[in-house]
Amino acid sequence: MADGLRRLVGAESGRVLQEKLESWYRDYEVNSCDQNLNRCCEIIELNSEIQGQLFTILNETSQEGGHYAGVETIKTRLLPWLGTCFSCATSGRLFETSLSLTQDSIEKERQLRELASNQTFQLQELQEELTSTRLQLNHVQQDLAKTQLALEDTKTKSATTLLAAEDEIVQLKAALKTSRAQEKDALRKLDRLNDYEQQIQILRDEISILDAQKSVLQSRLARSRSPSPRHGESKLPSSLPLRSCSPGRARRTNASRRACLVARFGDIYAQERLDAETLLRTYISDTEMVQRIIYIAAVESFHAAKMAYRQFKIRVRETLSLGHSGPESLEDTVMDYIVRHEDLYDVQASVNEVIRSMNINPKISFPPEIDFIVISTLIRELCRVAFSMQTLVPPLDIAFGTDGELFSETKYHRSFDSDFTAALVAYHVWPALMENDVVIVKGEAVTKRGALWSHRSRSRSRSRNRSTSPLLSHHLSRSRSPSPLRSGSPRR
């Protein structure tokens, strides 16, 4: 009964009947007589289908209650209604319902018998498949045993081969070790030979310069003794000897020196900078102040090295211009001399100048008992690299940077603790390396929101007025002025 009632509810026949009645009522005045009759027949047919389903449910319900269940209800309500309206049709309908139920029960019994026979047949098939699977499993176990025997044999052969290979590897390692030792020895000899050749060339250049100066002095002496100035002047050009050094060495080695200096600049960022930062953290707990000190040290080192290079170049030009002769220009000769004698650069004077500039910089501060001399190793390496970069064509320099400037992706990387949504630079960690306004090596900067306001308030609040420590005074007293000429053997 529940299934029949569910189907009746799910079919929504009552709602469809109501909708058809409402539609017919709305269109009754507009429709013709035939159309109204057709609508009425459709509604009668739908009503009869609903009544038939209800009678089926009534029959099933009465059967579920037994032989005498619901007799009073049928007598008092159903039979009077059937007697007055649909007695004949209803009796025929009940007979058809009983007949359909009988046919349904016979069909279900037939389906049960077929299902039982199918299950028996399927069980027999499963038993046959199980038997064949067991046979296959036995074959697979036999194959597995054979494979295990073959694997053991292979392991034995592999162990023998491995022992032989290990012996060969030991021999190869010994041969490789010997080859590396021979290679190191050869490289050491080659480096020593290159050093000797360089020293010989330097000595030749110095001898040539000294000869030129001697010739100039002799010509001046002869001119001062000669009664005719013109006669003395005519001897001056002929008394200058030709230079023996090779022209254009600085230009020929420009590309290799540039690559080495760029790599050295990166090594300083990766090694010396981190060592200096670790050292400063033992005295200063503020990470920002430590990074500012290192950045300002880098900027001041490049500035001091460039100033020292200009002065050194002027002195070399003044000295070499006295005895210059040969096909190369004076500028090329000066550049070759500087490249060959970079060790004459007084790096300690530049270090002292950098520390002096840092002591009066208002952006950084330091504990009074310690001086910036503790990071002199970093400053010295930066000064040397910056001085050598000035001998390149074109020279390399660092980018100019200010706190609160707009962050540039082409110049800087953001540090890990930066605000990646901020557009302004709070402070710089490392400068970018430039060549003719083109970035070669990116620097590092910290970006934060409100960086411009923070920079202004910090610049107003900080001031620095420190006296030089005794250690710094000792280093300053040792500064010397570089000279392009040597009186003795070259200092390596």
How would you characterize the overall build of this protein?
The protein is mainly alpha-helical and 492 residues long. 70% of the residues lie in helices and 5% in strands. The chain has 13 helices and six strands. The protein has helices at 2-11, 13-27, 33-64, 71-225, 229-239, 249-252, 254-281, 287-320, 330-340, 347-359, 376-389, 451-461, 470-477; strands spanning 397-398, 412-414, 425-430, 433-435, 438-441, 443-447. It has a three-stranded antiparallel sheet, with no helix packed on it. The protein starts with a helix and ends in a 15-residue tail after the last helix.
Structural class: mainly alpha
Q: Report how far the terminal alpha carbons are from each other.
A: 113 Å
The percentage helix is: over 70%
Task: Report the sheet with the most strands, covering strand number, pairing sense and barrel closure.
Answer: 3 strands, antiparallel
Q: Using DSSP, what is the number of strands?
A: 6
Rg (C-alpha, Å)? 53 Å
What coarse outline follows from CA principal-axis ratios? elongated
Number of helices, counting only DSSP H or I runs of 4 residues or more = 13
How is the largest sheet built, in terms of strand order? 1-4-5
What is the mean predicted local confidence, pLDDT?
Answer: 79
Residue share in β-strands: under 5%
What is this structure, in a nutshell?
This protein has 492 residues and is mainly alpha-helical. It has helices spanning 2-11, 13-27, 33-64, 71-225, 229-239, 249-252, 254-281, 287-320, 330-340, 347-359, 376-389, 451-461, 470-477, and strands at residues 397-398, 412-414, 425-430, 433-435, 438-441, 443-447.
